[in-house]
Amino acid sequence: MNILRAAVCLSLLLLSAAAVSAQSSNVCPSLPADSGLQWQEQAQADFVLCKASTGDGREVLSLMLTARDPNLPLTRPLRQEKGLFAGESLYWYQPDLGGQQPPGYETRRITVVKFDKNRYAQIALYAGDAKELGALQSLTQGMNLTPTAVAAGR
What is the mean pLDDT of the chain? Predict the structure, then answer.
């Protein structure tokens, strides 16, 4: 009977460890439960792409964590709001679309944040209106990147 009890306890312990391991494998920062957003994560050899979508499937935020400088041309004439991301100050920019301004362009934003040597986050916002843009900027300001999120070239 004691052997059976020990086997059951060991099985439960292994299942618990597997569940914790599965939860900690996500490298995208956590989203507030009340945000209504869900991450879709795509991991590649040299970057991780996190896409946040609303309940109806509309992508509103993308976050790429990489060891390479994205080298985006973020020019001063496209500079918009000042902000923060994971404790680093930044400027939000309207994306350079070669002079094109598709619907919703006025509430699109992009930025790149350098955390450390070979640690970058490229963030893009696809807000539906000015109110949603402000909410997304506040959401990104409160994001916390764990060391594992930007480790190993991600």
Answer: 80
Neighbours of 73 (CB within 10 A): 8
Sorted by sequence, the CB contacts under 8 Å of residue 53 that are 6+ apart come out as: 37, 38, 40, 59, 60
- From residue 62, give the alpha-carbon distance in Å to each of 6, 29, 54, 135: 47, 12, 12, 15
Model confidence pLDDT, tens digit, residues 106-118: 999 999 999 778 8
Average pLDDT over residues 44-66: 94
Q: Taking phi first (over 0 means left), then psi (-120 to 50 degrees means alpha), and beta for anything else, what does residue 39 get? A: beta
Reading the block at residue 6, the tokens are 């020990």
Contact status, residue 29 vs residue 145, Cβ threshold 8 Å:
yes
| Tokens coding 108 | 């699109």
